[in-house]
Amino acid sequence: MTDVVLVGLGGAGGIAAHVLTAAGAEVVALEAGPRRSAAEMTFDEIRNDVREWLAEPKARGELPTFRHSADQPSGPSPYPMLMANGVGGSTLHYPGLSARLDSWDFRHWPIDYAELEPYYALTERTIGVTRDLRRTGWTELMSDAATRLGWHPHAAPAAIDAARCTYCGFCTCNGCHVTAKGSTDATVIPRAEATGRLHVRTGARVVRIEARRGRVTGVTYVQDGRVLFQPAGAVLLGGFVYENVRLLLLSGLGGDQVGAGYMAHGTPNVCGRFPGRRLNLFSGLWSQATCVRDFEAGMLTASHEFKPIAASNLHPPSVPRWGAAWKAWLQANAQSVGTVSGQLETLPYEHNRLDLDPHQRDPYGVPVVRVTHRLGEHERRGFAFLRARMTEWLREAGADLTWAPDEPSVDARHCYGGTRMGDDPATSVVDRWGFVHGLENLGVLGASLFCSTGGVNPTLTVQALAWRTATRLTTSDMFSDRKPTVFEESA
Ligand SMILES: Cc1cc2nc3c(=O)[nH]c(=O)nc-3n(C[C@H](O)[C@H](O)[C@H](O)COP(=O)(O)OP(=O)(O)OC[C@H]3O[C@@H](n4cnc5c(N)ncnc54)[C@H](O)[C@@H]3O)c2cc1C
Ligand code: SF4
Hints:
The protein has helices spanning about 10-20, 45-50, 115-125, 135-150, 190-195, 240-250, 310, 325-335, 375-395, 460-475; strands at about 1-5, 25-30, 65, 155, 200, 205-210, 215-225, 225-235, 265, 270-275, 290, 300, 335-345, 355-360, 365-370, 400-405, 410-415, 440-445. By secondary structure, it is an alpha/beta fold.
């Protein structure tokens, strides 16, 4: 028996482990992936970005299926979905852009910005969020252009140790070779393990949450081919959006709202050619960026980190995709192409949801999640609006040619909902603290709690919410014999 079992030790689970162990809790973390080391993090775009090796242990074999509407058969997703598996979760391979939501983003939430603000501050101090990454010709060019347009550009907030970062250009889809990221494997998890109260089991896949008479009793998991039961006083689910929903559905817990309110960020982008300029965007990292947050529709970002294979696709539609003309265009222009991208806020629609696919199973014979999702009129207008702003921005900075994909793009790795938080069990799965209605010792961590997407990257909010949920647990009756923890010293 342990006080708390954590399902998944990623961005959210790592934070919860830190908060719980600091408060004196004994915690068992069951993580499906392995521990990764800095030495494994080589500069290999094919392994990292194309094959997405960090998703091999679990996510690849359990990829959700996709359909645009309930009357269609499900099939492979047209959008990127893969997340990383390992101690640190998907923060292993994120470039750490760590922005807070705005106060208006909480319009449809049961909590407001003020309620989350202290947890934002604690998380930022603890994982090391800075605006001090090196500025470059590109970030300054775009900053000056935005200022001329009357906007308010700023350096991206990034969970990166600016002094240690080598600006290697292989940050996204890869772990850090010098441990400069604020990924949870490098920040909060070692602290939690140093207390002696965090017990990490890797290669441990949770397959079911067990409950009896209105309380969860623990989880069943598989490790090295053996089926085991871990009893616990409380369970916190931190397996990322798709797995949180899948485990609740497979366990028959959470009610009929599980899976409702699914959303994924729209990610418009526009490219521009800057004739005669060498922009050197292959160096640096995605969160070494100039951001603009003047528009409610979502944040705009001018970033670095164009790896060779990705950059070879950044040409206007008039240029062929292969052959001599393509090579000649790249030779003349590849160093002079810059892009800006957006994080378009999307809405929860009745028709968008997650459920178990009756026709598709993972290699263990368990149904995978099925996504039913299509964008609405709000998103189509949002795309058009943000694209127009991005084009304006690039032109103002000196681009003589701009182009963008015709179809709106969606990033299903920035996905949300499915265990929405709320005060009314008829329209939500968890309460305002993140605990499942009617099951007070089962908490959920992650973006599955979100009621709307907001227009910025999710993880800082995911982590602030996880800090708050874990804190709530430590102040429950279960912990009445432990001393309360004060976290001002977390930096
Ligand atoms: C390429 C890429 C770049 C990104 N960049 C950014 C960025 O710059 N800024 C930002 O804010 N966000 C970014 N994100 C999103 C960010 O990575 C996630 O929001 C964040 O990691 C989510 O945290 P989580 O704890 O919910 O899930 P994860 O961090 O994915 O952790 C979930 C963990 O649970 C484990 N797990 C799952 N199921 C089970 C099970 N059944 N049993 C045991 N363990 C299980 C998984 O192996 C995993 O380790 C990026 C994502 C991707 C893919
Ligand atoms: S860009 Fe910096 S933080 Fe990212 S992997 Fe390279 S050295 Fe690490």
